[in-house]
Amino acid sequence: MIKTLSISNSKLWRNRLKFDFWSLLIVLLLMCFLPLLDLSDYTLGILIVAMYLAIVAMSWNLLAGYCGQFSMAPAAFAMIGGYIVGLSDFHAQLSLWISVPLAIVGTAILGALLGLTVTRLKGPYLSLTTLSFAEISRVIISNSHEYTRGDQGLNVPSMINDRLSYYYFFIVLVLLTGVFIYWLMRSKLGGFLLAIRDDQEGAESKGIDIVFYKLVAFTISCSLCGFAGAMYGSFSQLVSPEMGLLQQTGLVISMVVIGGIGSLTGPVIGAILVYLGSEWLREIGNIQMIVFAFVVIIFARFFRTGIWGFCLGLKQRLLQNHHE
Amino acid sequence: MRILQLIKLNLSVVVLGLFTLEAFAAEPILIGLSITRSPPGSVIQGTQIKDAMEIYADMINAKGGLLGRPIKLVIEDNQGLPEKGRSAVEKLITRDKVVAVTGAHQSSVCLSEIEVAHRYQTPYVNTNCWADSVRIKGYPEVINTSPYNFIVADSMAETLKAMKVKRVVAFAENTDYGIGLAKGVGEALKRKGSTIDYKFETLDRSSKDFTPAILALKSNPPDVVVLTMLPPAAYIALNQLYEQGVAPSPKTLVYDGAGMADYPDFWQNVKDAGKYMMTIGMYHPDMKMNDLSKQIAVEYKKRTKNDPNRLIYQAVDSLLVITEAIRQAGTTDSAKILDVMRKSKFEGARGLMTFDTFPGVSYQQWAAIPYVNYQLTDVNQAVGKTTLLQGPGMPLNTSKITMPK
Amino acid sequence: MLFLDLTVNGLIMGLFYALMAVGLSMIFGVLRIINFAHGEFFMIGAYTYALIATSFGINPWFTLPLAALGGAILGLVVERLLIRPLYDGYRSWSFVKDEYAVVVTFALSLLLIHLVDKVIGPSPFMGPSLFSMQRISIGPIMLNGQKLISSGVSIFLLISLAIFIKKSLWGKQIQAVAQNRFGAALAGIDPVKTTALIFAIAGGLAALSGALLSPIVNHSPDIGSFPAIKYYVIVVLGGLGSIWGSMFAALILGVLESYFAVYVSYDYRDAFGLLILICVLIFRPNGLAGMKGREI
Lengths: 324, 405, 296
Known about the structure:
The complex is a heterotrimer.
Chain A: H1 6-9, H2 11-33, H3 41-65, H4 74-92, H5 96-118, H6 124-143, H7 145-148, E1 154-155, H8 163-186, H9 188-198, H10 200-205, H11 210-236, E2 238-239, H12 246-259, H13 265-280, H14 288-302, H15 306-323
Antiparallel strand pairs in A: 1-2
Chain B: H1 2-23, E1 29-35, H2 43-62, E2 71-77, H3 82-95, E3 100-102, H4 107-120, E4 124-126, H5 132-136, E5 142-144, H6 149-163, E6 167-173, H7 176-191, E7 197-203, H8 211-218, E8 224-228, H9 233-243, E9 253-256, H10 266-270, E10 278-281, H11 291-304, H12 310-329, H13 334-343, E11 346-347, E12 352-353, E13 372-375, E14 387-390
Parallel strand pairs in B: 1-2, 1-3, 3-4, 4-5, 6-7, 6-8, 8-9, 9-10
Antiparallel strand pairs in B: 10-13, 11-12, 13-14
Helix pairs in contact in B: 2-11, 2-12, 3-4, 6-7, 12-13
Chain C: H1 2-31, H2 38-56, H3 60-83, H4 97-119, E1 136-138, E2 141-143, H5 145-167, H6 169-179, H7 181-186, H8 191-213, H9 225-238, H10 243-264, H11 269-283
Antiparallel strand pairs in C: 1-2
Helix pairs in contact in C: 1-5, 1-6, 1-8, 1-9, 1-10, 2-3, 2-4, 2-8, 3-8, 5-6, 6-8, 9-10, 9-11, 10-11
């Protein structure tokens, strides 16, 4: 019989998680009010893409931040999810009601398969295998012109016509993802994932089936990415192989690191700030990529716990002062 | 050197800008450019297009602008990525409120951008996306001043047929342009009833080594190797074809379908491998140059120290269609501008442009785009000194083709 | 005939892969991190070579070591500024160490690519050949003069490196730190200096590889990404941290790729290498000659 690990009972952890979740809700609430600033369709579009990336970032954080599996394939799975929807529309004219669940299931299966291959690997081996998988899928999709139209991409039907409605729809999606992950991490499963992250041998010695739980983490994370990709595809009405570029994965990882790895809110604020930042830097002219890369380096170097960690530290210091 | 050039360029723009600001207190008419200014896209093309359009914009402003207002180019970088293209065009249309968008030079980016233009019903003038799919979509907002795969394929097939060769192998890059053109040549050959044995091989344009594919040809080289690839992959392919002795050789010639012989960095990157290359070209100094193109050529040479090429004129013509349409319509209203674009004739730098609305590969395309076929006969040869195999609107003269010894 | 041609071509490409992979493997072996900016060391080397040789008209043979020096210096700078925090006194890093390395090196690679693109320009470059003949026939095989010379230089370098690591004092220190960092420190070796040395060597090798290839691959600022994926494959195939393993894996990958490209399919040629990687990782996770990385 597996006893519940102390970590999931730990008051400290539960309180922190709860605080995390409530901050996420507040962030999303604030975002609900943003359109009052009379934002253009263009800005709303940017925020929507940022939220798509936020969902991918949260999924990656589930796998890497909470479970310690440092996968390089989040963008690839988002691309696969988008392509499942695109292919369903292109070849079989399936409606989104069918193709989106298909995308979720398809990426879940692929994620499970990938998880199976890497379950016995660790460290750089894990990263490299997932990286290879990501590149292989991108090359295959990009070169199979007969089926995928190669770099032209595939058209995806849109679900909603109004930009503003799409914006709120995506806020709901981020909320649902956050609730889901919160619920997961509160449960016993969450505790096991954390245990695997912190001390794999120790967890195993307590009788936790690490292979099974790693597999679960992979499956859930990859299918969430696939779902995000499908939603993005529907918004932009076009999926292309560039969605799965390693550069995109790097972007997602940067977002989580800057926002704060190992938290719920971190990936979301990271995604929004980083993506808004890269668009805002457009204004500066064509040194935007240089500035962006530089900022990411500075953050990674000097703000290790990310913005979220920084805020958490602030809060604790404030509380301490309060209690004094 | 580049910094000095940049300073000079900026100074002249600033002076011109001050002049125009003084002359008109009126609000400028904004025209949006979505080009590539950073990798992974083709930055060279983007820069050429930007330079050319700036020259033409300055010319217009010097003459008093449009409808009493100066024109201003708003430039966005799409990095050669469809998603960035989408957001760039959306920003141009919804935030900057441009009257029209132009500058596109990469087909996959173009395809995502026209979706946005279509949604907002904004005129979109395609500068250099050759892919058939852009036209076949049939969006009424898209006007094509760019060469198109169909006609390039047709001309190349015609040339191949006239050369009376037996076997042709094409190397296509794995993009819509490359594969579309390579397929198009095959289809055109069939249409013309040719019996040439034609096949094409798709190569990854991000790869740096095509030797295996080239080696496979060595034992039985074809009569012509067609290239539908863009630099830098195209340069590498050319170099490796030469290095392996496959082409150019007494039996085999290279026939380029991308018109890269007039790129400013062509010779420095291929050296000996470029000799004897046949190519289709959208521009040749022997083509009749009207006053406009002569002016552009002089100004372009002055600003960038480079000779003009077809991309420059394509860019100027795209901008010209927009400005002339605004002038003729007397307004910046999208629907009226588009109406004028469809119905009117435009005297551009390359000739008289019309856009008919027959659906298919030439929908709203300048169908009678002039082109030539020519052959490079010496290393570092300027385009003007090459052998014209087919002048504009004239039949092909295959006797002029030189083979290496 | 084709087979022979392909084999020779594959071996030559493999030699170039090896120069890059060996450096990556060394970094892996000592720090257990992925260096995403390794391709950019290659790119900087190629550009340094091409620019110095054409602007100052220096003999290409003298420019080669200059390019390598440039790469080595870059490696040192990167190590000092960005990598050192990973192991020099920051104990709480163990949790986010991998992520940090990826983010920082990934951002660095973006930074370098766009810097070069802005400062030097986006056009492809072709450095001067060491040997001006573009075609040489050796028996039935036709080769590019530059490729031939570069292969020779590469072989020389790789063998020198192997000897260096095996026999020299520094080389033994590198081996010690790779095996057990703490233990090496106890034995009196300075792991920080050794790591810096490794970065310098890796950077120099990658830059040199770029310089050698500069006349062959018309390089633009984003050329670093082409080698990158292959090298990860090679390093894992060969076994993390094993130089001989990486070398052989590089040669094998070069040859197999050539065969695959012609006999099976050109389109999926790059995917092929990655497929091999996955298979090897499943069935023989230590690679050909590597250290233990497998877990169970």
